[in-house]
Amino acid sequence: MSTENLLTRVLKSVFFEKATGKAGRYIKNSSRLFQLLKDVLTKSKSLRGEGMDGVRDRLNLLVRMLRAYATGQYRTIPWKSLTRVAAVLLYFISPIDVLPDIIPVVGLTDDVALIMWLFSAISDDLEAFRQWDKTQNTIQIEG
Questions:
Q1: Which of 21, 65, 74, 99 has its Cβ near the most Cβ atoms within 10 Å?
Q2: What DSSP string runs through 79-100?
Q3: H-type helices in the chain, by residue range?
Q4: How far apart are CA 124 and CA 110, in angstroms?
Q5: How far apart are CA 83 and CA 66, in angstroms?
Q6: Residues 6+ away with beta carbon under 8 Å from 126
Q7: In the chain, what are the domain boundaries?
């Protein structure tokens, strides 16, 4: 199955639909959002192999962006992007989805395909956050 076909199946699946339905509730509740981010970081450790370092790095960027949003430090991300991120992360941490995670190697394929789609879908928002994050780190280091 091609990555494009897999992605189409994931985006139309009941599993992603459920994650999308929960996304707004997570964004509006900081404690739920922080728990989601913790779960994402834990599961991201299972992403191993060729090319996965870059995926984990970008997942870490997403986590930092949502953490900054939840703490009120960064609020310039559009609602549509926020809900997409939360839905994808909820799908990612769910062990039961289009390709269940218990299937060795193949089980994370749908998760990675969805994450890669997300990186592309919100690339401008991620870059804006990355630039903002750099200025914050500079300020914290200098201050």
A1: 65
A2: HHHHHHHHHHHHHHH-SSSSS-
A3: 3-11, 14-27, 30-44, 52-70, 79-93, 109-121, 123-142
A4: 23
A5: 11
A6: 58, 61, 62, 65, 119
A7: 3-142
pLDDT digit string (tens) for 58-110? 999 999 999 999 999 999 999 999 999 999 999 998 877 666 555 555 667 78
CB atoms near residue 63 (< 10 Å): 18
Find the Cα–Cα–Cα–Cα dihedral 38, 83, 5, 49, rounded to 10°: -20
- Residue 66 tokens read as 């949502």
Q: What are phi and psi of 45, to 5 degrees?
A: -65, -20
Q: How far apart are CA 137 and CA 83, in angstroms?
A: 26
pTM score, whole prediction: 0.86
How long, in residues, is the chain?
143
